[in-house]
Amino acid sequence: MKTDLYHLLKEPEEETSEEKIFSERVSQIPRSFLREILKIASKPEIISFAGGVPNPDFFPIEKLKEAAIDVFAYSGKEALQYSNSEGYLPLREYIAARYKITNGLIIKPEEILITNGSQQGLDLIGKLLLDKGDKVLLEKPSYLGAIQALSVFQPEFFNADLREDGIDAEQVETILWENKIKLFYAVPDFQNPTGISYSLERRKELAEIFKYHNTIIVEDNPYGEIRFEGKVLPSFKNLLPDQTILLGSFSKIIAPGIRLGWVVAKKKYMDKLIIAKQGADLHSNFLSQKIIYSFLKNNNLDNHLTRIKEGYKKQRDLMLELIENNFSKEIKITKPSGGLFLWLTLPEKADAYEVLEKAVEEGIAFVPGNTFFQDGKGKNTIRLSFSSCNETTMKTGILKLSNVLNNYIQNLQLK
Amino acid sequence: MKTDLYHLLKEPEEETSEEKIFSERVSQIPRSFLREILKIASKPEIISFAGGVPNPDFFPIEKLKEAAIDVFAYSGKEALQYSNSEGYLPLREYIAARYKITNGLIIKPEEILITNGSQQGLDLIGKLLLDKGDKVLLEKPSYLGAIQALSVFQPEFFNADLREDGIDAEQVETILWENKIKLFYAVPDFQNPTGISYSLERRKELAEIFKYHNTIIVEDNPYGEIRFEGKVLPSFKNLLPDQTILLGSFSKIIAPGIRLGWVVAKKKYMDKLIIAKQGADLHSNFLSQKIIYSFLKNNNLDNHLTRIKEGYKKQRDLMLELIENNFSKEIKITKPSGGLFLWLTLPEKADAYEVLEKAVEEGIAFVPGNTFFQDGKGKNTIRLSFSSCNETTMKTGILKLSNVLNNYIQNLQLK
Fold first, then answer.
1. What three-state secondary structure class fits B1?
2. Based on CB atoms within 10 Å of each CB, which residue in A218, A276, B81, B255 is the most buried?
3. DSSP output for B45-105
4. Is A310 touching B (CB cutoff 8 A)?
5. pLDDT grade, residue A27 (50/70/90)?
6. Pick from A68, A129, A280: which is nearest to B120 by CB?
7. pLDDT at B296 over 60
8. Measured between CB atoms, does A265 come within 8 Å of chain B?
9. Does A128 reach chain B within 8 Å, measured CB to CB?
10. Choosing among B281, B293, B294, which should be mutated to test the A contact, i.e. which has the most A CBs within 10 A?
11. pLDDT on residue B209
């Protein structure tokens, strides 16, 4: 196990051949250490708190199967043929209508583009908006997939610290005054990796700032519908509709293997996004679009969501309880009211990679928080996902992890 | 109908706002006039020879349905979960094994990346290899989707004429001596848009030239398995395995709505292609990968291919016969031994857009060949797809088109 991990921690090899084969941009995409950890974490002998993956027990397998049978029986020829780049219109209508209920947003179906998960949305937005050297503001820490997707287009990244109530508005304002920031990428609800949500006050304050500076906001919201308590807060799309591009996904609320997400953007962006989508892969999987739509048409999504939210809430509660009862008091924890993640902050001197090595030896995996920082910071932080374990596994795993962590911190203090 | 067409023929609007919103690259992606024509062509009152779409009557709907039921029943949790970026290993093993049978190619599964149709392969290859200003050689005419996908990365395009036996080797050699061409994109078997296949001699001659100049060959082969007569010829991947990146797809041989293709490349490319795939959309639709694999495992693909090849051959034969018996002798036709397309060359003075306008009024659609030229040439050419019509529709459509064409040519000669 150790060998794997040491191998992963090494920097990727540099291009050595005399002739330059690869594009400049390739060397700028950070390697996804996270996905490499997920490979280790996927070994059956490992209890994993690493992946931001939904609990497969919550997948509506039977109902999706019925939906698939329905599609093959009644519209097989259509579902298996080429389709338009924008996505299946009834599905876009469904998503548009749902935004009105969940967020009070008035979205037209033609403002929605169906993508291969929201990750593709990020790729298309990068293509559309970013020239080399354009300036992008991120939360610190930030979602690694976004950094990867946007890096391809060689922007210059800026970061402002994420606080308990959202990104630090003062830092944001300073950065915006000093730099022409083109795009701000954020996950304001149950953020990945921290689980933090922006407060109402912070949202309004930031909206004012971004409005003044005319910054495009890319608001990624894959977890918004997985809320355990509290009220839905206005999104940036509510506060600054013209300036905000919103990303959504079925991955967390239905299933990720079906790879369907969407981008919501005003017409001026959408026309060009569709051209970029054509170039990227013509259109999203049409069979999956038809299956998801048939599922949504024949089932009540809210009933499904109630069920999975209860499940995830139980898992969050159990993990928080186990941590509270067993982890050293030196470790700080976020208490998210939704989503899939908790965030641990160990004492300053700690190095989560060292903890991970010991944890993997005990058959436990998680993601060192440093992975989500671009400036090498966050070495003493850890992302734990409470989404993918059942009760027994979680108990075993967290108790083992508490031993590893508590011993590590004790040794650290003795040094 | 006329309004639609005139609207389409207009150039897209330029960005007029004071502030530059979009990336430089966006303005360089050619608008897909083809996909716009396909929108007209998809209207039920239109008989379309425009789309390069497979005949939906040939989709193995029942067997794919059984495959889907099988996947939901036995591996629903796995199929609906996140998966690896490379693609489902058993599917990659199947593809690798098939290359040995069909092309005598020894491909390792780890040299295969599953993509959202081969179109995404082009996007990833562009990302991987092309910096702004890098030089790319294309066939003239060339597949528009490739031009679109690669344009995003702002290369400089070069073209050499496509002859009856492949791209003009003399022109290629001159271009390669005068320019450091990084990448050559070609469809050597039953090319889109012309239906032309490279002769054995031409393949060997070109392989020598590309070997000498160390040009990367991107060989796109979506139609190779739809051969009606004649022997499979060695691909560039056979002739120059290290230098060739090969693209394949299930779109034409099984169904496009399922959006699965693949890239075959040596490890040095593959490692970085996988990172680019992660950034682009994490991984291809896993449910579809499992369904296709289950279909392939439980059915004999060759039996399916025999059936669809017979069908397409009949369609090609009928279209050729109708053209031969009805079209003006002034019109030259390619006679492809596979694939989906015929290519018409009208007298020099003719303008296929003018023909299209009249044809649409008669309820017939096709793609003006000019669409596939980057230098505005080919105004007197037409791509006809024989793939998507049944016998009766084809007869009606080709007879109507012959009236439009013959009248047009007669008037042209009177002018």
1. coil
2. B255
3. T-EE----PPPGGGS-HHHHHHHHHHHHHHHHHHHTS---SS--HHHHHHHHHHHHHHH--
4. no
5. confident
6. A280
7. yes
8. no
9. yes
10. B281
11. 98
Peptide bond into A56 cis (omega under 30): no
- pLDDT tens track for A298-318: 999 999 999 999 999 999 999
Question: Which residues on adjacent β-strands are paired with residue A220?
Answer: A247
Contact A148 B85 (CB under 8 A): no
Tell me if A31 and B275 make a contact (CB, 8 A cut-off): yes
Contact B19/A at CB under 8 A: yes
Q: Is A152 on the interface with B (CB under 8 A)?
A: yes
What is residue B9's predicted lDDT score, i.e. its pLDDT? 45
Q: Check if A54 contacts B (Cβ < 8 Å).
A: yes
**Per-residue tokens: B96:** 């690798």
- A88 to chain B nearest CA, in Å? 12
Q: Cα distance from A279 to chain B (closest Cα, Å)? A: 4
Res. A40 pLDDT band, cuts 50 70 90: confident
Selecting from 3.90.1150.10, 3.30.565.10, 2.60.120.280, 3.20.20.70, what CATH number does the domain A2-59+303-414 have? 3.90.1150.10
More confident residue, B285 or A25: B285
Cα B175 from chain centroid? 24
Terminal-residue alpha carbon distance, chain A: 27
pLDDT score, position B11: 45
Q: Is B81's CB within 8 Å of A123's CB?
A: no
B61 within 8 A of A72, measured Cβ to Cβ: yes
Model ipTM value: 0.93
B224 shares contact with chain A (CB less than 8 Å): no
Residue A222: which of A245, A248, A244, A246 has the closest Cα?
A248
Q: How far is B22 from chain A (nearest CA, A)?
A: 5
Give phi and psi for A158, each to the nearest 5. Answer: -120, 155
Tell me the mean pLDDT in the region A53-82. Answer: 96
The radius of gyration computed from the CA coordinates of chain B, to the nearest angstrom, equals 22
Partner-chain contact A276 B84, CB within 8 Å: no
pLDDT of residue A166 exceeding 50: yes
Contact predicate B245/A67, CB 8 Å: no
Structure tokens at A323: 């941590």
Closest CA to A95 of A327, A352, A297, A376: A297
> Would you list the domain boundaries of chain A?
2-59+303-414, 75-298
How many angstroms away from the CA of A322 is the closest CA of chain B? Answer: 27
Mean pLDDT, residues B81-90 taken together: 95
pLDDT digits (tens, 9 = 90+) for A184-211: 999 999 999 999 999 999 999 999 999 9
Instruction: Name the percent of chain B lying above pLDDT 90.
Output: 85
Domain B62-298: give its CATH code. Answer: 3.40.640.10
pTM of the model: 0.94
The reply to whether domains B2-59+303-414 and B62-298 share a CATH topology is no
Q: What is the pLDDT of residues B190-213, one digit of tens each?
A: 999 999 999 999 999 999 999 999
Q: Kindly report the CATH number that applies to the domain delimited by A75-298.
A: 3.40.640.10
**CB half-sphere exposure, B58, CA atoms < 13 A:** 28
In this predicted model, what pLDDT tens digit does every residue of A234-270 receive, in sequence order?
999 999 999 999 999 999 999 999 999 999 999 999 9
Q: What is the pLDDT of residue A31?
A: 64
φ/ψ of B167, rounded to 5, equals -65, 145
> Which residue on chain B is closest to A39 by alpha carbon?
B84
- Split at pLDDT 50, 70, 90, the class of B31 is low
Q: Shortest CA distance to A286 belongs to which of A91, A85, A79, A115?
A: A79
CB contact under 8 A, A72 and B59: no
- CA nearest to A265, candidates A224, A237, A287: A237
B295: pLDDT strictly greater than 60: yes
